[in-house]
C-alpha cells in the first residue's frame, strides 16, 4: 500500500508549503495535482501565487474533478493533491455526488503504488454559518477529512506554519 | 470523584463517535443525555441521524436545560452529554443565566459517583462574527469549555476523526 | 537572543491568561503592551475587563501601531504583547503596509535582550468569509502568525484554557 499523508489546517497555516516539502522528500520529480479552478480574478491570483512558489522539480496537473483517474495515471512518482477542499467545492458547485466520489477516492488508495500527500482545510471551528449551503459544505468537508484521515498512514495539523502530529 | 472527560472539536470532526466509544468503554448500558432541541427540520434531521447511529447499549434522555438534575438522577452508570454547546444555545435562546448554570454544572461534578463524558464544540477559531449575538455566544462557549476543561481529568481535541490529547 | 514565546488560539481559549502567567514567570515587574484600540463601547468593555484582571506586577503600555519602538524602549524586563491580531487590525484599518511592519517586527526580535511573549489569534479555521476584507485579513493574520512562529523559541496553542505544545 502506498504511503498516504494528510496535511490539514486553517487558511494560511502553512499546509501547502509543509506538504510540498514532505512530497519532495519522497522523490523528485513529483506530480503536483492542482484541484483549483479559477472562478474569478481573486482565485486566479491565488493559483498564480501558488505556482510561482513551486520549482522545476514538479510536474503540474490540473484536475478539478476526477482525482481517481489522475492518481492512477501518475502512479509512478510521489503525488501532492492540493487540495481536497477545493475538489469538494468543485463537486458540490457542479452538483456531483460528492459522497460517492469521496468514497471512490478512499477506496482507490490501497491500489496505488506511489505515495500521495493530500492537503485539506479545517473549516468547522468557527461559528455555525448563517446559510445552509455553507453548513452543508462544512459538514461534507468534515466527513471527507475523516474518511481520508482514517485511510492515511500519517495525519498532520499545521498551526502557524508548524506541524502537529495527529496520527 | 467521578472520571470526567471533555471531548472538543470542530463540526463533523468525529467528536460524538469518539465520545460514544469512550463512554461505552466505561460500562454498559450507558446513559445518553441529549441536549438538542429540534428548532427546525434541519435540526430534527441531525438529531435523527445521531440517534440512528446509536445502538441498544444506550438509555436516551432528552434534557435541554437542567443538566445538573439529569446527572444526579442517572448517577449509577456512565453518562455521555452531547453536547454542551447546544445546552449553552438553549440557555441563551431561553434567556437563562448561562454563567450561573455553567458554574453550577461544574460545581456538581465532584459529587458524582459515575463518570461523565462531555462533548463540546470549538467555535472560536474563525473570523470575528459580524453580529453581536454570535460574538457573545462564542465568548460564552469559550468560557464554558475552559471551566469544564479545568474540572476534567482528560481533555481530547478531535481533528479529522482522530483524538489529540490536550490534558 | 531573547526568549520569544508565541501563544495562539481561538477566542476565549485562555490565551491571555496563559501568556500572562508565562510572562510573570520570566520576571516582575513585567511590561504589558496592549495593542487594543477602543473603536466602540464593546471594545472598551473588553479592554477594561482585561485590565481589571491584571495586578500591580504589570507596567501597562498602550501601543496600537509601533511595536518595534515600544519593544526597544522596554527592553529591560519581560514583555507581553497582547495581541498581534489587534495590531494587524490597527495596521490594516489605518491603511498601513502591514507586511513591511510585520517583517520589521520579526527582524527586531534577535536584537532584544529581554524576553517577549506574544499573544495572537487563530482566525482561519472557519468557513471562507463572504467579504473580501475578511478574507484578506485572515490571510494576513495567517502569514503574520507563521513569521512570528518561525522566529519563536516556543509556540503554544491554547484549547479550552489548556496549552498544547506546537514548537
TrEMBL record, chains A, B, C:
Active site: 50 (gmp-histidine intermediate)
Species for this entry: Rhodobacter aestuarii
Segments traversing the membrane: none
CDD domains reported in the protein's UniProt record: CobU
Signal peptide: none
Record carries keyword Nucleotidyltransferase: yes
UniProt xrefs under NCBIfam families: PRK05800.1 (NF004469)
GO molecular function: adenosylcobinamide kinase activity; ATP binding; cobinamide phosphate guanylyltransferase activity; GTP binding
Binding site for GTP: 9-16, 34-36, 82
Role, per record: Catalyzes ATP-dependent phosphorylation of adenosylcobinamide and addition of GMP to adenosylcobinamide phosphate.
GO biological process, any: cobalamin biosynthetic process
Keyword set includes Kinase: yes
SUPFAM superfamilies: P-loop containing nucleoside triphosphate hydrolases
Protein name as it appears in the record: Bifunctional adenosylcobalamin biosynthesis protein
Reaction catalysed by this enzyme: adenosylcob(III)inamide phosphate + GTP + H(+) = adenosylcob(III)inamide-GDP + diphosphate; adenosylcob(III)inamide + ATP = adenosylcob(III)inamide phosphate + ADP + H(+); adenosylcob(III)inamide + GTP = adenosylcob(III)inamide phosphate + GDP + H(+)
EC number: 2.7.1.156, 2.7.7.62
Keyword annotations of the record: ATP-binding, Cobalamin biosynthesis, GTP-binding, Kinase, Nucleotide-binding, Nucleotidyltransferase, Transferase
Pathway(s) where this gene product acts: Cofactor biosynthesis; adenosylcobalamin biosynthesis; adenosylcobalamin from cob(II)yrinate a,c-diamide: step 5/7; Cofactor biosynthesis; adenosylcobalamin biosynthesis; adenosylcobalamin from cob(II)yrinate a,c-diamide: step 6/7
Domain of life: Bacteria
Amino acid at each position: 500500500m502506498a504511503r498516504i499523508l494528510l496535511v490539514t489546517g486553517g487558511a494560511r497555516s502553512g499546509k501547502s508549503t509543509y506538504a510540498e516539502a514532505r512530497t519532495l522528500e519522497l522523490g523528485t520529480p513529483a506530480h503536483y495535482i492542482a484541484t483549483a479552478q479559477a472562478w474569478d480574478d481573486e482565485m486566479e491570483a491565488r493559483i498564480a501565487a501558488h505556482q510561482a512558489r513551486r520549482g522545476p522539480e514538479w510536474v503540474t496537473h490540473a484536475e478539478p474533478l476526477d482525482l481517481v483517474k489522475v492518481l492512477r495515471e501518475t502512479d509512478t512518482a510521489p503525488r501532492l493533491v492540493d487540495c481536497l477542499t477545493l475538489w469538494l467545492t468543485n463537486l458540490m458547485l457542479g452538483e456531483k455526488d460528492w459522497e460517492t466520489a469521496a468514497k471512490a477516492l478512499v477506496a482507490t488508495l490501497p491500489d496505488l503504488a506511489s505515495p500521495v500527500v493530500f492537503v485539506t482545510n479545517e473549516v468547522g471551528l468557527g461559528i455555525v454559518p448563517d446559510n445552509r449551503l455553507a453548513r452543508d459544505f462544512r459538514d461534507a468537508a468534515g466527513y471527507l477529512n475523516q474518511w481520508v484521515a482514517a485511510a492515511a498512514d500519517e495525519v498532520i495539523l499545521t498551526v502557524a506554519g508548524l506541524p502537529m502530529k495527529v496520527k
